Amino acid sequence: MDDPLDGNEGSDSDERDRYLAAMQDLTAAMAASGTTFQERVEPVLAVGREHLGFPNGHIAVVSGDEHKVVASSGLPSTISPGVERPLSETYCKHTLNDSGIHIINKASESMAADPAYEQAGLEAYVGTTLRADGSEYGTLCFVNDDEAISEFSDWQQTLFEHLTQWVEAEIEREIAVDSHKESQRLLEATFNSPETFIGILDADGTLIRVNETALGFIDADAADVCGEPFCETPWWNHDEAVADRCREAIERTRAGETVRFEAEHVGADGQRISTSVVARPVTADGSVRKIIVEGTDITDLKRREEQMEFFNSILRHGILNGMTVIEARAETLADTLDGAQSNYAETILDWSQDIVDLTQKVRSVLNTMSDDGLTEAETIALGPVVEGATKKAASMDEDCTLRTDIHDDIEVVADDLLDDVVGNILTNAVEHGGPGTTIEVTTERVGPMVHLHIADDGPGIPPAERDAIFEKGERGTESTGTGFGLYFVSVMVDSYGGNIWVEESDLGGSDFVVALPVR
C-alpha cells in the first residue's frame, strides 16, 4: 500500500499533517471498547466522515439483490441501521463491480438516469467492496446528499484503505467468533503499519506492547523491552534530554492530556531520525487505563526546513540590497565610459541584474517550498537553457572555450531556475578551471533520464571530495564564495526528481553530470 508518509517527492507537508492527524484519530477509535458491532465500528466511521469530508458513512451487507445498512454514522434520518432496499436501486451495485475504490464525483451529471440516483438523489459517493471469511460481504461507503466532491487525494485514499482493513477485521470478528486469531492478524496489519512507530503502555508508563516497525528500528525483540519503563527503552535512553521529554509527556498523558512533541532517535545501525510523537490516553470509567504512543518519521521534513533556513541566511546577508547598489553604479559607469571599459561596465550591469533576478527567484522558492518539490516543475527545452548559460559563462573569461552539442528536441522536467542551475556549474568551471579553460556541454539519453555532461580540462576534483562539494556551506580551498552555488544546484536538481554527481572528464578535469527526468 502506497503511503504519503514515505518521504517521496510527491508528498505535501499539509497533506502529511492531515494524514497523521487522521491516523492518530483512527488509532484512538480502534482502541475504544464496544460490546456490539455498531459500537465498535461507528467511531471508526466517524473518523472517516471527518477526514474524508462526508456527512455520512455506513456499512451495508449485500445478499443477492438485497442491500441492508448494518452500521451508520451521520445523517440518521436518511441512512440508518436496518434500512433495506434492492441492490439495483443503490450506488453500491457499481462498487461491487469495481475492483478498487469506486468514486462518484457528481451524480447529477454522471448518473442522472440511474435508478439509484432517482431513488436516493445522493450527489457524491465513495465506496469499496468488503470481504469477510473469504467471500463478498457488502460495502463500506461515504456519501454526500447535495454536494459534489472537489477532489479525493492520495492520503485520503490511503486512509480509506486503512478503514477498509479495520472494518473487514471487525466483520470477521462479528460473523465468526471462533475465527478470532484470523481477525487479530488483520488488526495487526494496521497496528504494524510500516510508516508509524506504535507502543501501548500501562497507565504507569510501562511498555506492554509495541509494533514491529518500532522493534525493527532498534533491532530488538518485544521481550527485550516490554515490561520496562517506556522512557528507559532504547528509543529514548540514548539522550537524557530526549528521555526527559518522553517522561514529561507520559506524566501529562496520565493526567488525561493528549501530548504532541518532536524527538530524535538513534537506530541500531546508528541511523538518526526525527519523529513527530503523539501520546494519547485511553480512558475507561473516567480514568486513564492505557497510553498509546505513536511516532511518525519527519526526517525529510526537517531536511526541508534546514534547506529553507540556509536559503534565508543567504538572503539575510543583504544580497538583494548589495546587488542593487552594484547595479546602479554599473549603470552609471556604462553611461559615462567608452570602448572596452564601457563593455566591462555593461558586463557588470548584466551580471548584477542576473543576480538580482536570481535572488528574487530564491525568495519565491522560499514562499512556495513544500514536500512535493521546491517549485512547480514543468517540461522545459534544454537547448535554450544551455545556450543562455554558456553565453554568460563565456563573458567571465575571453580566452575560455565553450563547446555545446545539445539536440534541439531534448525536453526535461524542471522549472525556470534551471538556467541558474546550469549557469552555476558553468561559471564554477570557468572560475576554477584557470585561464583558457575548455568546457564541453553534451547530453545523452539514459532510460527515463537525460544526462547533461558539463566537462572541463581544469585541475579536477579528487574522488574523496566529490560528494562533499554539494553539501551546505562547502567550498573549495581557493574559493571566496559562500558555498551557496553547488548546494543550490543539488537542492534544485533533487526537487526536479533528478540527481547530480562528478566524474573524471575525458578532457582531464571534472565532468559534472546532471540527470534530469523526461516527462
Please supply descriptive tags for the structure shown above.
519 residues, alpha+beta, Beta-Lactamase, 4 domains, six-stranded antiparallel β-sheet, five-stranded antiparallel β-sheet, 41% helix, elongated
User: Quick one: overall form?
Assistant: elongated
**What is the mean pLDDT?**
84
User: What count of helical segments does DSSP give?
Assistant: 16
Helix content: 40-55%
> What fraction of residues sit in β-strands?
15-25%
What topology, given as strand order, has the largest sheet? 3-2-1-6-5-4
Q: How far from one another are the termini?
A: 25 Å
Task: Write structural notes for this entry.
This protein is of the alpha+beta class and 519 residues long. The protein has 16 helices and 18 strands. The chain has a 6-stranded antiparallel sheet. It is elongated, with a radius of gyration of 30 Å. It starts with 12 loop residues before the first helix and ends with a strand.
Can I get a quick summary?
The protein has 519 residues and is an alpha+beta fold.
Topology of this protein?
Blueprint: H1 13-31, H2 37-52, E1 56-63, E2 66-73, E3 84-86, H3 92-95, E4 102-104, H4 107-110, H5 115-120, E5 124-132, E6 135-144, H6 154-175, H7 180-191, E7 196-202, E8 207-210, H8 212-218, H9 222-225, H10 240-254, E9 259-266, E10 272-284, E11 287-297, H11 299-316, H12 319-336, H13 339-368, E12 378-381, H14 382-394, E13 401-405, E14 411-414, H15 418-433, E15 438-446, E16 449-456, H16 485-495, E17 499-504, E18 510-517
Parallel strand pairs: 13-15
Antiparallel strand pairs: 1-2, 1-6, 2-3, 4-5, 5-6, 7-8, 7-11, 9-10, 10-11, 12-14, 15-16, 16-18, 17-18
Helix pairs in contact: 1-2, 1-6, 2-6, 6-7, 11-13, 12-13, 14-15, 15-16
Membrane topology: Multi-pass membrane protein
Subcellular location: Membrane
Protein name: histidine kinase
